[in-house]
């Protein structure tokens, strides 16, 4: 029996204006006996920034690889700009900017040489390329390094350069695989600004990150992957409201025996759980936690609104210890 990838190689060959920029249905990929992606469904629409979150090994980079043709999926439907990356890679690559998880820069070349090569791949003429390269290097505070050999750059500089490379040829879609790992907060903010202004012009972004704050800042929608499957999806706000609504009081671990008897299992929206060394209580209202503080005589280390990290930990297998 032919594999699903060879049955109809030219199923979609034109770029359909209203089609999602990325559309995956039942995408699966195994390495040997290990299923890295198990029937993944997801969409990224034009002008959206979607965050792909999940623990190490969840399959994020495998999926990104499938999108630009460095990983060949075993089956399922996948379209990027309405083209299958296996059968029409060039139609996709010409409109794509990628920051891969590994920088994949040419270590022996200078920064400028490296960027010139990629600008040529991206279809820019020499006269178009130089000002564009200079502008982006300056933006990422790398202009003083244009004659430096890549291997002499720090890890953070290489990461910035990989981002410059992704933007060179004015792509329509950015695939960013942990783009800010290893960057200091100042540079991280610069990169966020660039991604947000890119998105403002109607272009599309798929980003993986382990920083929940980054996901909340950049992403219109989140897809959480766990063990090769979608564990949850939605806007950050909607996911927080649906999966972890309310406020969290963070207490020291040894507070648990005092707190537990005060929780009424019949009250909806209350939850006791652990995050690292801490005992946490979720309650519908901030005042509920203040009342708990008074009745227990315990001072919380922190009181805060629920956030995306709570949702993430819940969906990716935090041990629940709850009266839900
Ligand atoms: N080329 C490969 N050969 C074998 N196993 C791989 C290969 N690429 C990825 N994997 C495995 O697939 C799983 C998913 O990897 P990956 O997509 O890189 O996860 P993530 O990016 O979410 O951390 C991991 O267990 C990883 O070890
Ligand atoms: Mg990865």
- What average pLDDT do the residues reach? 91
Tell me the CATH superfamily of the largest domain: P-loop containing nucleotide triphosphate hydrolases
Largest sheet: 6 strands, mixed
Q: Which structural class should the secondary elements be placed in?
A: alpha/beta
Write down the Rg. 23 Å
Q: How far is it from the N-terminal to the C-terminal residue, by CA?
A: 48 Å
For the biggest β-sheet, the strand order reads 5-6-7-3-8-9
Percent of residues in helices: 25-40%
What is the CATH architecture assignment of the largest domain? 3-Layer(aba) Sandwich
Break the fold down into its secondary structure elements and pairings.
Layout: H1 4-7, E1 22-31, E2 34-44, E3 49-53, H2 60-68, E4 75-80, H3 89-93, E5 96-99, H4 111-121, H5 126-139, H6 155-167, E6 173-177, H7 185-200, E7 204-208, H8 212-218, E8 221-226, E9 229-234, H9 236-243, E10 247-252, H10 256-259, E11 271-275, E12 278-283, H11 286-296, E13 302-305, H12 308-315
Parallel strand pairs: 3-7, 3-8, 5-6, 6-7
Antiparallel strand pairs: 1-2, 1-4, 8-9, 10-12, 10-13, 11-12
The structure holds adenosine-5'-diphosphate (ADP) and magnesium ion (MG).
């Amino acid at each position: 029996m032919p594999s699903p990838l060879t049955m109809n190689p030219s199923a979609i060959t034109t770029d359909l204006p209203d089609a999602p920029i990325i559309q995956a249905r039942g995408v699966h990929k195994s390495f040997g006996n290990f299923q890295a992606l198990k029937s993944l469904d997801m969409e990224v629409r034009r002008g959206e920034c979607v965050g792909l979150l999940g623990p190490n090994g969840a399959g994020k980079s495998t999926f990104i690889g499938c999108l630009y043709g460095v990983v060949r999926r075993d089956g399922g439907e996948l379209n990027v700009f309405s083209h299958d990356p296996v059968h029409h890679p060039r139609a996709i690559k010409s409109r794509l900017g990628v920051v891969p998880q590994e920088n994949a820069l040419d270590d022996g070349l200078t920064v400028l040489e490296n960027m010139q090569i990629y600008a040529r791949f991206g279809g820019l003429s020499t006269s178009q390329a130089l000002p564009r390269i200079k502008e982006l290097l300056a933006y990422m505070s790398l202009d003083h390094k244009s004659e430096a050999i890549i291997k002499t750059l720090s890890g953070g500089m290489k990461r910035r350069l990989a981002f410059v490379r992704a933007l060179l040829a004015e792509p329509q879609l950015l695939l960013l695989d942990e783009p800010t790992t290893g960057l200091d907060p100042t540079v991280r903010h610069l990169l966020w600004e660039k991604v947000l202004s890119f998105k403002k012009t109607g272009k599309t972004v798929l980003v993986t990150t382990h920083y929940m704050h980054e996901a909340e800042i950049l992403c219109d929608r989140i897809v959480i992957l766990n063990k090769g499957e979608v564990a949850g999806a939605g806007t950050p706000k909607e996911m927080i409201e649906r999966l972890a609504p309310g406020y969290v009081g963070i207490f020291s671990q040894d507070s648990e025996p005092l707190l537990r008897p005060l929780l009424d299992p019949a009250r909806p929206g209350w939850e006791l759980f652990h995050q690292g060394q801490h005992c946490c209580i979720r309650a519908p209202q901030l005042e509920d936690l203040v009342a708990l503080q008074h009745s227990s005589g315990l001072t919380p280390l922190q009181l805060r609104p629920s956030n995306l990290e709570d949702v993430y930990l819940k969906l990716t297998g935090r041990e629940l210890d709850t009266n839900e």
